[in-house]
Each structure stands twice: as C-alpha cells, then as structure tokens.
Amino acid sequence: MMVETTLLKLSSVGKQFGGLSALSDVSLHIRRGEIYGLIGPNGAGKTTLFNVITGLYQPSVGEFQFNGQGYQACKPHVLARAGIARTFQNIRLFANLTALENVMIGRHVRTRAGVLGALLRNRATRNEERAVVERARELLRYVGIEKPAQTLAKHLSYGEQRRLEIARALATDPLLLALDEPAAGMNATETASLKSLLQTIRDSGITVLLIEHDVKLIMGLCDRVAVLDYGKKIAEGIPEEVRKNPDVIAAYLGASHD
Amino acid sequence: MEIFLQQIINGLVQGSVYALVALGYTMVYGILGLINFAHGEVVMIGAMLALSSLTVLLGLSVPPLLALLFSIILAMAGCMALGYTIERIAYRPLRHAPRLAPLITAIGVSIVLQNLAMMIWGREYHSFPQLIVNATHSLGGAVINDIQIIIFILALLIMAGLMAVVHRTRLGRAMRAVAENQHAAQLMGVDINRVISLTFMLGSALAAIAGLMVSANYGLAHYYMGFVLGLKAFTAAVLGGIGNLRGAMLGGLLLGLIESLGAGYIGDITGGFFGSNYQDVFAFLVLIVVLVFRPSGLLGERLAERA
Questions:
Q1: Is B257 helix (H, G, I), strand (E, B) or coil?
Q2: What's the pTM?
Q3: What is the ipTM of this complex?
Q4: What is the CATH number of the domain that holds A15?
Q5: Do B183 and A76 lie within an 8 Å CB cutoff?
Q6: Would residue B132 count as lying in a domain?
Q7: Are B250 and B12 in contact (CB under 8 A)?
Q8: What pLDDT digit, counting tens, does each position of A194-222 carry?
Q9: Residue A88 lies in a domain
Q10: Which domain holds residue A148?
C-alpha cells in the first residue's frame, strides 16, 4: 500500500558542508497527487533539501527513493529523466533563448533524435521536432504566456519569467514538480493566479512540492506541510495541525525552547 | 586595382578557413569558458591524416575523387576521436579547477600533439598530391583557381550547416542551453558531459576539413602548421567576439581580408622596407588592438555577461 501511494521518500537524509550540518536526519515522504509544502525560517535548510531532492547536491548520509526506486549519488539529468522537475528561487531561465525555445529544452529528456538525425533531418527527426514545438506552445498556453513565445526570456516580465520556468519544468513530463519560492516577489493578484495554476497542475495528476515563505499561500494550498528548522524536520502534517504545533510557533516567533 | 581584387580573393579564401577553425575555438569557449589552445594541432592532425590516406590510396591507384572522399571522412573521424579524447583526459578532470589550470593544460596538449606528429610524420614538409586539374580563371584582372573556389564555397556551406544544427536541432538547443546555464540545463535532463563531448567532436570535424583545405591550397603540410594557424583562428574568434558563432565567421573572413590586404600593400606603404613576408604581423596587430580597445569583439555581448 505504501509503495503505491508514496512517490518520494527520504530516510534519515543528512547533508554537511565542511563542518556545517545543513540537514540532519530528515525523513519524509510525499504522496502521489498531493501538494506538499516545505516551510521554515531563513537558513532552515529548505533549499538544501530541495537541491538534494533534485540531484544538485549528493546527500552525505541517508536514503533517497523516488517512484519506487532507490537513488544514490545521482546526476540531475538522471533524476529529470526519472520524473523530477524544478524551478529556482532566483529564476534561472536560458536568458538568450526565446520563451518557446526554453520550453523546448524541457522536452529534451523526452525526445531522442541524436546527432545523426540532427544532421540528416530525416522524417522521424522532423516529426519529433514538430511535436516538440507543438507541445511547447501548448504548455505556454497552459501557463498563460502564449503571446510572447518568440520573445527572448530576458525580455519577459518577472511574472512571465516565473510562469515560463514552470512551463519549462512541465515540459519534462514530471511526476513531481518542485517549486522553490514561486511566489517570491509577486503581488497579491499574481500570487492568486499562481495558486490556481498550481491547483490545475495538481488536478492534472502531477505531484507538487512547494517551498514558500508566504505561509498564507502554503496553508491555503497544501495538503500536507513539513517544517524545517536548523536542518531538522520539526513538524509535519495537515496545515491546521502544523499551524498549532508549539515547536513551529517557537521556530517562527523565536520563543525559548525550554 | 588588380592587386586589390586579387588580395580580396586571397583574403576571402584564407578567411573562410580561419572561420572554420575559429568556430571550433568559439564553440568550446561558449560552453566551457575554456580556450582550447590545442585546437590548431587538431587542424594539423586532420591535414596529416588526410594526406597520408591520400598518398596510400593514390599509390593503390584508387580514383582521385574516391580517395579524396575517403580521406576527408577518415580525417574527420580521426579528429573527432582526438577531440573527444583531449576533452576526456585533459579538460574534464579540470572542469572545476581554476581557469588557469585548463589553459596551461591546453598548451601542454598542443605541445604533446606537435611532437607526436613530428614522431609520426617527421620534420619535413609533405607535398599535397594534385587531385584535380587545378584550372585558373581570370576575374577582372585577378586570378582565382578551382581549389580556391571549392574551398570558399564548401566553407560557406559547412558554416550554414553548422548554424542550422545549432539553431534548429535538439542537439543545438542543448548546446545553447548548456552555454547559458549548465545547472538549469542539467535539470532539464540535458546530459552536459555528452553535450560537451559532442561540441568538441563537432569542432574537431570542422578542424579536419580546414586542415585539408589549407594543405590543398598551399600544396603543403607540416607538423608545425597548426600552431600559427591556430593562433590566427583564435585571433579571428576574439575579433568576432569569442563565444559567438556568427562572430567567429565574421572574424575569420575579416582577418583573412586584413591580412591579405596588409600583405599586399605593406611594401608600398613602407616604401619597400617591409615585404609581404611580414603578413603574420597583421593578425597579431589585430589581436592586440581588439584586446585593448574592444575585448568583447565585434559581435560579442555574451562575454560581458559572463565576466
């Protein structure tokens, strides 16, 4: 039963940078089809955990399971192929490529044309290329930025860049979409439309992992929430429970731990 | 006027070869931020491989065009394997080292390849066999021969093909993505090691063709021919804006023209004090001037972004 419903499972994961322990003994599991939130004060280790999940960092200790398979010392492109896609806290688009091309890059893992195909331009390659363009346009429409498809990514507005990053991540056909502070710097209207976009994505069957500072957004959107503080998980559960957890209140408000 | 036209023709032909080699420098720089100083040596190995293969095949009285075709393919394959190997053993282990380390390594690889070539092919000049009747044509008082026409047209076709690969294909898209941001590209499922290997191989294939062109044009090949050629192509890449493909092509053609016109008129300008044997001076004057006044090159905006 657990195997079927759990998409991602971390067991006692730790990450050290030199003498500094950024994560210690973090265990959590994310179920298929849920929106899972990760919150915590600044420097709590959220982004580190994120980087471990997406393969940018190798965990120092602990186990990592995704979609029923264990991974160790895994390269990001392998995890991308396995179905993990992410966006960044500080947007990392390919600035000098067009919006459409950015999304097309996301299709890279799901296409196969090799060098030979690229040089010969045979029918299979051309068909694949056409399908890639079509799917990329579809995704731009899906996130609501189909108009500036031919605009260079660096010329898009901030909100459009955020959406483009999501479209690019979705282009990899992920099972898990991991978003690092997607609402950062957004105004209330933009946040509200982001919220409904994330709900649409979840309803389409993609599991969402969300790091966010905006506690209101997290509480209103997530099915379950975990709280990190000083690299440790101090609480996990449905938003209502977590909100009342004394450790969480202490971590956020700085009350003494005695 | 005849001299002028003649020098333009010579400059364009030579420049198109520079452009092919400069593309190899610029592609690698665009992706890794590394100047692969061994690239000139890859050009030389390409020329030597083609020459050896031609000599053997013609000795077996294989028809010239067939021999040429086979030799081109062999030189390209050999250089691609060489480019792959260089990246794999000399640069990849240093990917995260300070930038000076791979630069020094590149110079080391260059020396190793030169000496290796000297051991295999000796110190003497090898003459390039005549494959076609190289007819010359008169063009407004200037002269152009068949080999020059073939070199120029072939170079343009190859450059157009490369642009198509880079801008229209999955591989090209992956290359541009890795050049922009390696982390993000990886997270999109791009295997950056593979893309880097393929970039080296693509650049080396162009180098092989350029090597063959140079030795066909001058009728000679020599173990040391890659050194100066490599430096000039590097100059061309810097002139156009290193990291920028169009810049490399523009820089190559411009450098060819500057060099050729400079060599054509240096005698007149200096009252016969310097002769056309000072041709090489111009390329390096250009390098110095560009580095002082416009280090990002003619089309290079990307460099500023990276620095």
A1: helix
A2: 0.82
A3: 0.71
A4: 3.40.50.300
A5: yes
A6: no
A7: no
A8: 999 999 999 999 999 999 877 888 888 99
A9: no
A10: 95-172
